[in-house]
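Q: Two folds, back to back.
A: First:
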Amino acid sequence: MKRVLIVVAVFALTVTAAMAADSSKITGYISDSMCGAKHMGSGAECVKKCIAGGMKPVFVTEKDKAVWSIDNPEAVKDFYGDHVTVTATADEAAKSVHIDAIQAAK
């Protein structure tokens, strides 16, 4: 039984370390799945209204205006429509990000 627990603990630490190694800081905007990059920097009220209407929050990169779905949308609930810097792990194949930390962009 101890061996199983040790194997599980080692696996959990390995996964956590791998995820942390793949995370990076990215600046962009929190938008909604309907408008995407359309309102970057000027449509906070529209973003909030669309999300309240059932659209999903998305992350739009500032550099290339790429739209990424957010795996953990509860992490961005206080930042709808805002210019932010996130620490996130990206899943290129799914075009999604898991946000580990978020703050207002400087």
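A: Second:
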Amino acid sequence: MTKREKRVRKLFQNPKTVPFKELDRVLKDAGFKMRQPGSGSSHSVYTKGEIQISVPFRRPFVKEVYVKRVLELLGEE
């Protein structure tokens, strides 16, 4: 099992406790490009072809709804 597979499995197991840094790493490993948030914004936008998702930075964990959406997108690849 690769590190990428382990990270994705961790997201599936407990989507309520995923730090932003971990979600960022999973998306970048899947080939998404991140656009830095604009001035005063907390949302990072990830794109891969026609697929786009906006994820807000939040401490200590990203909201579960965003993690589930990322898992849906990874499943569609």
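Q: And?
A: The radius of gyration is 12 Å.
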